[in-house]
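Dear support,

I submitted the protein below through the web form. The confirmation email said the job was done, but the results page showed an empty box. After a refresh the structure appeared. I'm attaching both so you can tell me whether what I see now is the final result or a partial one.
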Amino acid sequence: MMSSEVFCPQCYQTNDSALETCGFCGASLNKKNTQIRTTVNIPRGADSPDFGAAESEPHLQIPVGGIGFSFGDGKAIIRESTGSFILGRYGPSAVTNTGFVDLMEYDAANMGVSRSHARISFVDNAFVVEDLDSTNGSWLNDVKLTSRLNYPLHNNDRLMLGRLMMRVHLGERPSANSITFSLQNESLPLIEGQQILTLAALQTDILPYLAALECLQQTLDASGQRPSAPAAILSLTAVPNNTLTIQAHGLTEAVASIRARVIPWRSLRQNVIGSALDTIDPIIYQSVIQVAANILLDHNPAISQDEKFSAVETLTPHLLLIALNPYTLTL
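What the results page shows now:
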């Protein structure tokens, strides 16, 4: 049955059929092409769907920084850009643009997909999904999404809009995603009145610090089930004072996590900075374990207890090295 509403091809809002232009954005309404079915209400016996056994999915070639969705029948959608777009249904006569992905060829109408069902966005270096008050709801794996909240997407996630199931495929993070940060240590030895970087400090403090950052980044990538681009140092500059400036790519989230979680931890425990790892109090060790758990939850709130336990076990020695290191990370 056809509705008495028309669908704006520019902003995807519904309008009364008597209007000639969209009441939301002012775009012209082509009524011949914008009149569509109302969303089918699909009854459910439970709040969460039964996803069943995982089907064999095609191996998609996703461009660096891109995202793809496969439907288990050889069909797939691939987006090369990190720009925001809406998943919904419109029909073969649609006038669409790059901000809208029409799912009609995947039987979206009968599967209960709303006209503007969900939005995919790129936020804080990660793709997220947001349900747009859809009629039949959205699920990420076995979690029903709360409308208007962002949920991070991970490689091989199962996303269901209404009853339309798709798999998420993520490309590698862009290698151009670089960050510049500094490591400072006011206790460096003075040589001819200047504090300089010694070879001993480079070997015992700096290189282990960078290796620990890379381990943190790889653990976050693994937790998010996304490909991990190798970390690389683009430049390393030691100036004649207490600062070492580093430009790197592949470490953005790791550096952000140290800034958000480890630096505040250090500010409250100045007396243990520089301590040998084998001399610290068990209470300090336990507090670093909690920091590791918080970092993982920051990046993947849906992480399972088993995955979190394993990741914390991997991360803790590296975070301990960073937390006790005489160098402080600054941006």
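Response: this is the final, complete result; the empty box was a page-load delay. Residues 199-223 form the longest helix (25 residues).
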